[in-house]
Amino acid sequence: MMRSVGSGGGGGDALHTVNNSTPFDNNLSVGVAPSSSSVSFLEDAYLDRINTTAIGVGHLKKLYLPPFRGPFFVSPDIFAWIVPSGITALLVFGTVYYTGSQQSTAGLVSLFTLLGIAFVSSLLVGITDPGVYPRLGHGERDPLESCTHLPICKICNMRRPRRAAHCYSCGVCVLEHDHHCGVIGGCVGSRSLRWFTLYLLSISSASAMGVYWITMSLLHPPANSDRPTATELMKQRARHQNQASLQTAAHIFLLIFIGNIVLLVGGMGLYYVYLMSTDTTRREAQGKALKTNLDSYVHGIEGNVCTRFTFNIRSVLNRLYRSFFMVPQSMLVSRGVTCSEMKPLAKGREDPEPEGLFE
């Protein structure tokens, strides 16, 4: 799908074309498109907004690391990431300590690869732009002020696009806001949903490997071990109540703990894959926000019914591809347009207060 939007620079009438096609796009029969007057929210001039100042990032902290291009945007509760990471490290140590001697090198490499992906993706949730719709900078005019059907964020003092919501932890509005995850310390939005989903899938896959290893170690202990199997332990339970193996108890504890992680985190990971494949956020799935999708207008009544009640693998792959590889550009990083080139505020309009904001 092609769309033309304003360049956002000082050129006035200059336009550029954005190509949203993906490897899974197929030619859809498009019905009568709605007029711009009846569906004014289809205007997307706000996509060209750029605000690199401290006002735009809210409570996020801008961090520059020399080896990397561009800044990181650190979440205010980034240190919460230490707790789940520490628990994961302890569980990995316990699993490898009791079952590592029975595993192949390939199995251990696979486990630590999954854990590495989990650590990196969870960290990226807390240090990358989640899809911030920045506050108005000094001298900037709200591009959506004429769209009276859009809600006004009373904190940011501007109209926000559809599917955006205010994150009180980050102090800014976030496009396609899903939730702010206090467990790993990061906001989940249009640009960070892929990292959050990748974290859930990788940590649940690594946990599933741990459950399998522990279960096999319980049923088939090493040949040089005098530890009884779970079956033998149950047979001896009546005569040897106080002789339960410490290693077996540790195995059972790890099995229960990691098994719960597989069920909870794995289930959540599959749920988020479903949300990504249907282009839906958790807020929208729970009825907290109104989801507006262009497809519901351009397919017509017949097309909408077919899309709703039939499974289209191409559509699913297309949405997953877009969620992972076609995230919107950050509005907090300069792309050749500065705040000084933006439209001035209307006469008599006050600048937003930057209280409580820091860089």
TrEMBL record:
Catalyzed reactions per annotation: L-cysteinyl-[protein] + hexadecanoyl-CoA = S-hexadecanoyl-L-cysteinyl-[protein] + CoA
Lineage: Eukaryota, Discoba, Euglenozoa, Kinetoplastea, Metakinetoplastina
Topology class, membrane: Multi-pass membrane protein
This protein's UniProt keywords: Acyltransferase, Lipoprotein, Membrane, Palmitate, Transferase, Transmembrane, Transmembrane helix
Residue span, Palmitoyltransferase DHHC domain: 152-285
One function term, GO molecular function aspect: protein-cysteine S-palmitoyltransferase activity
Localisation: Endomembrane system
Comment on protein domains: The DHHC domain is required for palmitoyltransferase activity.
Top-level taxon of origin: Eukaryota
Protein name: Palmitoyltransferase
Main location: membrane
Organism: Bodo saltans
Statement: the UniProt record of this protein carries the keyword Lipoprotein: yes
